[in-house]
Amino acid sequence: MAALHRLRQAVRGLFDAAVTGRAPDPEWVASVNRVLAAAPVTTVLSWPAGGPPGREAVVAADAPVARALHRLADDAVTLLCGPDAGALSVCPAEGCARLLLRTHGRRQWCCTRCGDRVRAARHYARRRAATESAAAEEHGAAQNAGTAGRSTAAEGTASG
Ligand SMILES: [Zn+2]
Question: Where is the segment annotated Disordered (predicted)?
Answer without folding.
Answer: 130-160
